[in-house]
Amino acid sequence: MTIEKATLLLKMMSNPIRLGILRELTLREEICVGNLEKILNISQSSASQHLAHLRNSGIVTSRKHGKKVCYRVSEESVKDILKALNI
C-alpha cells in the first residue's frame, strides 16, 4: 500500500459510520447495502453515500446482484490495518 493510499484509508476511517462499514466488510467476504443498513442501523441513503466515498477512494469495490449492490474490501492490506487496530 502506498503512503497516499494509507493516508486516504486513515482519512476514510476517521468517520464512525465508514469505520463501521469497513469493520463489517473485514468480517465478511462481501456485504450488500441492505444488510449494512440493518447491521449498522443507518438509512439506505446514508449507507450508499458512505459506500460511494469508499468506492471512489478505491478502498472498496462493488458489484450488482440483480437490484442489489454488494461491496467488498479492495485490498487485503485494508483488512490487515483494521486487524492491527483491533477493530
Describe the structure.
This protein is of the alpha+beta class and 87 residues long. It has a single domain, classed as Winged helix-like DNA-binding domain superfamily/Winged helix DNA-binding domain (Arc Repressor Mutant, subunit A), CATH 1.10.10. Helices cover 61% and strands 16% of the residues. Helix 2 packs across helix 5. The protein starts with a helix and ends with a helix. The model has no long low-confidence stretch (mean pLDDT 90).
Briefly, what CATH class? Mainly Alpha
Q: Give the proportion of residues in helices.
A: 55-70%
CATH topology: Arc Repressor Mutant, subunit A
Report the average pLDDT across residues: 90
What integer value in Å does the Rg equal?
12 Å
> Can you count the beta strands?
3
Number of helical segments with 4 or more residues: 5
Beta content: 15-25%
Overall morphology: globular
Q: Stretches where pLDDT falls below 50 for ≥5 residues?
A: none
Element order, helices and strands?
HHEHHEEH
Question: Mind telling me which CATH architecture this is?
Answer: Orthogonal Bundle
